[in-house]
Specification:
Elements (H helix, E strand, L loop, with lengths): L7 E10 L5 H13 L12 E4 L3 E5 L5 E5 L2 E7 L4 H21 L5 E13 L3 H10 L11 E9 L1 H5 L6 E10 L4 E16 L7 H19 L7
Antiparallel strand pairs: 1-5, 1-6, 2-3, 3-4, 4-5, 6-9, 7-8, 8-9
Length: about 230
C-alpha cells in the first residue's frame, strides 16, 4: 500500500468552547501572545491579519491560517516536512495554547479535534459503483461527489469517572477533486461532557498521538488505495 502519510497536505486543529462574547475584548491580546511572543511556536509564522467585530484571522503565503473567535480557536497548518516533525510542532502549539486559554480564562471547553487532509490519485471506481447502485444506474458517471460518515467511539475516562461522559468521534471524509484525484480526510474528535473549565491537567499532546495511532492503524487500513495498480 502507498504510504498515505506522504499524501497529507494539511492538518487542522480546533478547540471549541461555549460561546463567550468576552473574547471580543481580548482578541488582540490573544493573537499578540500567539504570533509575537518569542516563546510561541507561531512566532513569525503568519504574515497578514484581519479582524472584524468578533473574529481575528491570521494567514501566510503557504495557505496556513489561525482563526480566533467567540466559539473556537482553529489552526490550519500546511504540511512542509515529514509527519512526525509536523505533529511535534502541533504538540508544542497545543501546549502553548493551553497557557493562553488559562491566562484569558476561556472556559467551557467542549471539544478538541484534528483533521488530516490528504490528496491522492485514485480511479474512484468504488465510489462511482456505489452512486450507480443507489440511483438504480441512472448515474454511472458523475462530475462530482462528496461523502462523509461518522462513528462514535468510547472514551475510557467516561467509564472511570462518575458524572463524566466524555467520548471520541471520528468522521471520514471523501471528495472528488478531478477524474483521477481524490481528497480524503480523517476528523478525529474528543468531546468533553461536561465541558471543561480547567484544561491544565488535560494532555492534549496525548490526544495528538492517539489520533495518529487511529489514522495509521484504523483509518488507513479501512481505506484501500489503488494507486499502485
Amino acid at each position: 500500500m502507498t504510504n498515505l502519510n506522504d499524501k497529507i497536505i494539511d492538518i487542522t486543529i480546533g478547540i471549541r468552547f461555549q460561546r463567550s462574547f468576552r473574547i471580543k475584548d481580548v482578541l488582540g491580546a490573544i493573537t499578540d501572545k500567539l504570533v509575537y511572543s518569542e516563546s510561541s511556536p507561531l512566532n513569525e509564522y503568519f504574515e497578514r491579519q484581519t479582524q472584524n467585530n468578533s473574529e481575528m484571522t491570521l494567514t501566510n503565503e503557504q495557505g496556513s491560517y489561525l482563526r480566533v473567535n467567540t466559539d473556537d480557536i482553529i489552526l490550519k497548518h500546511v504540511i512542509e516536512k515529514d509527519i512526525d516533525k509536523e505533529l511535534k510542532f502541533l504538540a508544542e502549539y497545543l501546549k502553548y495554547i493551553k497557557k493562553i486559554i488559562k491566562k484569558y480564562n476561556i472556559t467551557g471547553i467542549n471539544r478538541i479535534g484534528i483533521i488530516y487532509n490528504h490528496k491522492i490519485e485514485n480511479d474512484q471506481k468504488k465510489f462511482i459503483n456505489a452512486i450507480s447502485g443507489i440511483t438504480n444506474s441512472q448515474f454511472s458517471d458523475v462530475d462530482d461527489f462528496s461523502l462523509s460518515f461518522s462513528k462514535k467511539l468510547s472514551a475510557t475516562s467516561g467509564v472511570i469517572k462518575k458524572g463524566v461522559n466524555d467520548y471520541k468521534n471520528v468522521i471520514y471524509l471523501f471528495r472528488k477533486i478531478s477524474r483521477t484525484e481524490l481528497a480524503i480526510g480523517l476528523d478525529y474528535q474528543k468531546y468533553f461532557l461536561p465541558p471543561l473549565d480547567d484544561i491544565e491537567d488535560k494532555d492534549f499532546e496525548d490526544f495528538i498521538s492517539n489520533s495518529k495511532q487511529y489514522l495509521e492503524n484504523t483509518f488507513y487500513t479501512n481505506f484501500e488505495t489503488n494507486e499502485e495498480k
